[in-house]
Amino acid sequence: VKSSIGLIGLAVMGQNLALNIARKGYKVSVFNRTAQKTEEFVKNRVKGEEIEPHYDIKDFVESLERPRKIILMVKAGKPVDDTISQLLPYLEPGDLIIDGGNSHYLDTERRFKDLTEKGFLFLGMGVSGGEYGALHGPSLMPGGSKKAYSLVEDILLKIAAKTEDGPCCTYVGERSAGHFVKMVHNGIEYAIMQSIAEIYHIMRDVLDLPTDEMSDIFKEWNSGELNSFLVEITYKILKRKDEETGKPMVDVILDRAEQKGTGKWTSQAALDLGIPTPSINLAVVERIISHFKEERTKLSKLYNKRRSALQKSEEFLKDLKDSLFFAMFMAFSQGMWLISEASKEFSYNVDLFEVLRIWKGGCIIRAKLIDTLRRYISDENAHLLESEEVISLLKERIGSLKNVLKVSIENEIPVPVLSSAYNYFMSLTEERLPANLIQAQRDFFGAHTFERVDKEGVFHINWEEGEIG
Ligand code: NBP
């Protein structure tokens, strides 16, 4: 019997996705560049699931039902192109390749065009939820063509995470829309992680709280409006002790954060499209700064920080909680606005309401807040700031955020993402920004012209001539 689907790439994600698909009743053929990984996978993890290992790419392709459907879970970049080149000689027009890795959307755009011209079908599919999600139900963000999606829709809906609003999978949009949306998902993830980290920093270095107590606080927050996967793992992380030293695990982990590029790509895309995503940008920058551990250590001795311990109080804990809510909201606001703009610019035809629905389960940024966002999202209100409920939610919390920023500044704690949320909000809600002065400066040194507030037209004056004072 031929397999319903094939999967190439048996690292953590591929193994778990193959098991997930097989457990939903589909026969799966698998292949991996290094044969030993395939052998180990079959020996150690396949327990009765209908998974057929292959050690030759031609045999692998021939084991599949027509039209063939092949998921790639290989490392993003060149490995995807290499794997596609190896496959093509054995495929027939109408066969479908699905790239489930974190590919850059411009690579997906190129591959989509190339494969479509050759008569093949292609989906660029974002997969979120890490290894647990891949096995038990990820959030799936496939983009490409509706025709390609319809070939695998039944499988994808079955393996995706489920919420009361249905499976966390939908046809996201044309061509590279799926990978674009997955990239922004990760950008939002960066901003929320950094916001949580900044709150933790204040708890640790201003409130002087023991990690167990911080854990209890995050746990309590997770039972309310901040309920989310990232807050949940935070309280679990803070509870964990190092087996060797007995110290809290976070205290023995080096403060240097790595990245694989999706946050940076989100910022790059946002700058190219002209959409403000300062919280995402600064979350990327802060990971970069974290890398300079030696410099930070040296400089910290040259500039002693002024810190005065603040007594923990219910009021200040509420300020922290409300600030985190505010920052989380702004991360989504920036991300959704970016997706909306990309959808227009690249004719993706993305349904923002559906994107939020498939982020409700399975993925890293799943959060209770998404239900609120879904009530108000639209192309006209993609940044989500215009509904009455949101206006009062934000107005009620701005005082808390100001207080947290004040305490951070007084205690010389860096809070780039919390303050970016504040400044993004304050700039967007300011009728008259000082950009008139910038336009004057541009006209002064570069004759870039300016518009006037009192009449139509484009103007330029010779700034060196005429009256001064
Ligand atoms: P990796 O990203 O570590 O990729 C390892 C796989 O790529 C192995 O199967 C490896 O084969 C294969 N590969 C490489 Br490396 N170079 C290759 C080449 N030139 N030709 C063919 N195959 C090649 O695995 P992962 O962490 O499971 O992630 C898979 C994809 O899913 C990535 O794009 C990742 O960004 C994305 N993703 C990961 C997560 C996560 O939590 N890890 C979450 C969401 C998305 P080999 O065994 O022969 O070396």
Automatic annotation (TrEMBL):
InterPro entries, per the entry: 6-PGluconate_DH-like_C_sf, 6PGD_dom2, 6PGDH_C, 6PGDH_Gnd/GntZ, 6PGDH_NADP-bd, 6PGdom_BS, NAD(P)-bd_dom_sf, Pgluconate_DH
Source organism superkingdom: Bacteria
Recorded coiled-coil stretches: none
Transmembrane intervals: none
GO process annotations (BP): D-gluconate metabolic process; pentose-phosphate shunt
Family: Belongs to the 6-phosphogluconate dehydrogenase family.
Complex and partners: Homodimer.
Protein name per the record: 6-phosphogluconate dehydrogenase, decarboxylating
UniProt source species: Thermotoga neapolitana (strain ATCC 49049 / DSM 4359 / NBRC 107923 / NS-E)
